[in-house]
Amino acid sequence: MMQGITVQGVTKHFGATRALEDVTLTFAPNRIYGWLVTRRATVKE
Hints:
About 0% of the residues lie in helices and about 45% in strands. A hairpin with a 2-residue loop joins strand 1 and strand 2. It has strands spanning about 5-15, 15-25.
């Protein structure tokens, strides 16, 4: 039997804006989740 995955305590900021605070995400087994993810590359010289 497959078990789901739970991620707890997620907080996300975009600059000075707090988008998520102490969120719990639960992913059920045998489900397909689609996520739109954008990444910003930072290059430090």
